[in-house]
Design goal:
Layout (H helix, E strand, L loop, with lengths): L1 H10 L5 H8 L4 H9 L5 E2 L7 H17 L4 H8 L2 E2 L8 E4 L18 E3 L6 E10 H5 L3 H27 L5 E4 L5 H15 L7 E5 L1 H7 L9 E2 L2 E4 L2 E5 L8 E5 L3 E13 L3 E3 L12 E3 L5 E14 L5 E5 L8
Parallel strand pairs: 2-12, 6-16, 7-10
Antiparallel strand pairs: 1-12, 3-4, 5-15, 7-11, 8-9, 9-10, 11-16, 12-15, 13-14
């Protein structure tokens, strides 16, 4: 609702028009209040030092984040299981566990040692930008708003998850090929992932899989009870389907063994910008620019700073080459 009102304001010269437009299509008082405070361009989490808007805009950002948990593995884990730490901090990553001992009365206690490395949690920037027509933005229908939000959520979810897996799956990461296409093979594969990741019986475990794996798993009612082609539960644990995972791949991740941080979030819109209508934009004079004002369009951009790094080598594992349910 806020995003739509901001885009309509861009089409009408900014100012208080966003709040006026929000009232026109039945927005809540909270939304109208937020828009009245938005005297700065865009939906930023900062307020140029005024103080009051800071908390309100973060509430708005958190609400938008919460909608991503149904489409993004990273945001699902962020909401429930990741170790939240500040960005640009050094982490103690465990490479060897501490050892306990049983000793006799009067005997010296051996020293327990752990081996740590200290990498930095360096943020990366995830961005998504779309352009909507003047007619779509001015429409007061729920369908128009849902179209904008859905497309932006899908774009952000996909790019964040792609980078998230890249960050937490360096070598060595347990990976094995599927043992076969039958339900018995599927059980063996699932068991192998549990053995690799669920080593302490603690943490927050989440399954993540490509759409074709979810399709095949849903055909095995004994194993995949509670599982659908669009996700659900596997062995009582959350199971998510992600386009950011290669076909034929099932992953298990322990959120408690992954440190992550979220930085600035911004949701900006402009009806006056000139942009390259290209998914591979170039720097310099080679890029052809299209005027939003001249083409009666509005550009919306979402930018999120985030970081993730595993703190244990057994934080994540995967099975590849899965063809469960396929006919030979």
């Amino acid at each position: 609702m806020i995003a739509k009102a901001k885009m309509m304001a861009e089409l009408n010269g900014g100012g208080d028009f966003g709040a006026t437009a929000a009232r026109g299509f039945g927005a809540s008082d909270r939304v109208v209040t937020l828009l009245q405070k938005a005297i700065i361009p865009g939906l930023h989490t900062h307020d140029n030092g005024t103080g009051d808007a800071l908390a309100d805009w973060r509430i708005s950002a958190n609400a938008w984040f919460s909608t991503l948990r149904t489409t993004s593995v990273f945001f699902r884990l962020w909401d429930s299981g990741l170790r939240r730490v500040p960005l640009r901090t050094h982490l103690g990553v465990t490479t060897m566990n501490a050892t306990g001992w049983i000793v006799g009365e009067g005997q010296p206690i051996p020293l327990s040692t752990i081996t740590l490395s200290s990498p930095e949690l360096t943020p990366v920037k995830a961005c998504a930008m779309l352009v909507a027509s003047d007619e779509l933005i001015r429409s007061s229908s729920t369908e128009a708003l849902n179209t904008i939000n859905a497309e932006l959520r899908i774009a952000v979810s996909t790019v964040v998850d792609q980078k998230f897996w890249e960050l937490i799956m360096p070598s060595p990461t347990f990976a094995d090929a599927s043992s076969g296409n039958t339900e018995a093979n599927a059980r063996d594969d699932v068991k192998a992932l549990l053995a690799a990741v669920n080593t302490t019986g603690a943490g927050y475990l989440v399954w993540a899989m490509s759409p074709d794996v979810a399709n095949g798993l849903s055909l095995f009612p004994d194993l995949g009870e509670g599982m659908t082609p669009q996700g659900g539960e596997l062995l009582g644990l959350p199971a998510m389907v992600s386009n950011a995972i290669p076909a034929g791949t099932l992953r298990l991740v322990n959120g408690a063994a992954v440190a992550a941080g979220l930085g600035d979030f911004s949701l900006d819109s402009s009806g006056q910008a000139s942009i390259q209508m290209n998914d591979t934009p170039s720097l310099g004079a080679d890029g052809v620019l299209t005027s939003m004002w001249q083409t009666n369009s509005v550009a919306m951009k979402a930018v999120i700073d985030f970081a993730a790094r595993r703190t244990r080598t057994d934080a994540v594992a995967q099975i590849t080459g899965i063809g469960w349910g396929e006919v030979a």
